[in-house]
Amino acid sequence: MFETLDAVLADAAAHLTRAARDRKSPMHVPVVGTADGDLRMMVLRACDAGIGLLRFHTDARSPKAQLIGANGMASVLAFDPEAKIQLRVKGPARIESTGPVADAAWAAASEYARRCYLALGAPGSPTDQPRSGLPVEVEGIRPSEEQLLPARENFAVLLVQPTLLDWLFLAHGGHRRAQFARSGPGQDWQGTWVIP
Question: What is the rounded CA–CA span in Å between residue 20 and residue 16?
Fold first, then answer.
């Protein structure tokens, strides 16, 4: 089934590009890790065909945004249980809250998705009771464009440029694993088979 490194790389790209487009994909919400070892699940919003850039949305006030801004690295772990494929990617990461990529992502997001960035405090802020942190007037409703204006300053994109890719296929007859690396964003992937 997976006899060549080119087939493996194509499989990884197909999984990630589908995950970004299809909310029913098992890889749509991968685990994202930061340099401090913290992990969280995030919606994969975009992946180009060459696995050159992964895009996620985040709150610019979040601890992960601050850490990535300071460290500039992230890792992503995704699994498709039906296909029995695990993907791990690592690479330079950055947070963009202004500019064309962030502006386009903001414009393409639904009102409900953008509403999250109206929270009165940064993610992880203490609260005296269970609450969303949203202003009362937008809780449980689809906010208007006017109501969403203050949210834009809290919105950012997390962009990961994978330079390492680990592909694992779990098979009853024997697992298969391949690793790929590139010297930097935009460079060609160089792969090798490894023992699972």
Answer: 6
First to last CA, the chain: 16
Query: What single-letter amino acid sits at 84?
Result: K
Domain of residue 117, CATH code: 2.30.110.10
- Position 9 scores a pLDDT of 97
User: For residue 41, which amino acid is it?
Assistant: M
Structural domain of 94:
5-194
- Spatial CA neighbour of 163 closest among 192, 179, 185: 185
User: Could you report the per-residue pLDDT of 130-143, keeping only the tens digit for each?
Assistant: 999 999 999 999 99
SS3 content of the chain, % helix, strand, coil (to 5): 30, 30, 40
Of the CA atoms within 13 Å of residue 84, those in its CB half-sphere come to: 11
How does pLDDT run across 9-42, given as a tens digit for each residue?
Answer: 999 999 999 999 999 999 999 999 999 999 999 9
What CA–CA distance (Å, rounded) separates 75 from 34? 7
* Structural domain count, the chain: 1
Query: Contact, 96 vs 157, CB < 8 A?
Result: yes
